[in-house]
Amino acid sequence: MPTTPPFETIVEAHGRTVLRVCRAVLGSGDADDAWSETFLAALRAYPELPAGANVEAWLVTIAHRKAIDMTRTAARRPPPTDRPPPDPAGHHAEQDEDLVDAVARLPPRQQQAVAYHYLGGLPYAEVAALVGVSPDAARRAAADGIAALRRTYLTPERPTPKRRDTERTQP
């Protein structure tokens, strides 16, 4: 019964052929990614490959399928444009930049708690796990951060913004 060669030998023997197939189907841009995906898939399936199988044909088939998958994925991606899409919520970029700057000036723990809870919508228990503190400490850091933002960010020219979400679950 013939033994199967080590997978490294298969990569060395057929790597160039697989890369040529990937380049032929995808062009040089995505060919390296398809090559990698091909050999990752092949590595997982290699132990079940029947003895005496045509390894090169098997790898080319996998490469072909990976290339098709990548082509389909690329077709679903929106095309790149010069301009970003309009903000569906109607927010003003300048106002968001001002808010980002104001949050960035907070101490790190307050900054994280405000960002994760108020901007990211995470409950305090999840904020606490991310920041590495208790839920009460996360709640306190967020409250202190919001208080600091009210003092420094909100001015008569910049009134309190309307909340984006009206429901928030508290632990």
Give your account of this protein's structure.
The structure is a single chain. With 171 residues, the protein is mainly α. It contains seven helices and no strands. It has helices at residues 7-26, 28-45, 55-76, 93-104, 108-119, 124-131, 135-152. Residues 163-171 have low confidence and may be disordered.
What can be said about this structure in brief?
With 171 residues, the chain is mainly alpha-helical. Helix content is 64%, strand content 0%.
Instruction: Report the C-alpha radius of gyration, rounded.
Output: 27 Å
Q: Give the terminus-to-terminus CA distance.
A: 63 Å
Number of helices: 7
Average pLDDT works out at 83
Number of strands: 0
The H/E string reads: HHHHHHH
Helix percent band:
55-70%
Strand content: under 5%
Biggest sheet record: none
Low-confidence regions: 163-171
Shape: elongated
The helix-and-strand class reads: mainly alpha
Compile the SSE list and pairings.
Layout: H1 7-26, H2 28-45, H3 55-76, H4 93-104, H5 108-119, H6 124-131, H7 135-152
Helix pairs in contact: 1-2, 1-3, 2-3, 5-6, 5-7, 6-7
Question: Which characteristics define this entry?
Answer:
mainly alpha; 7 helices
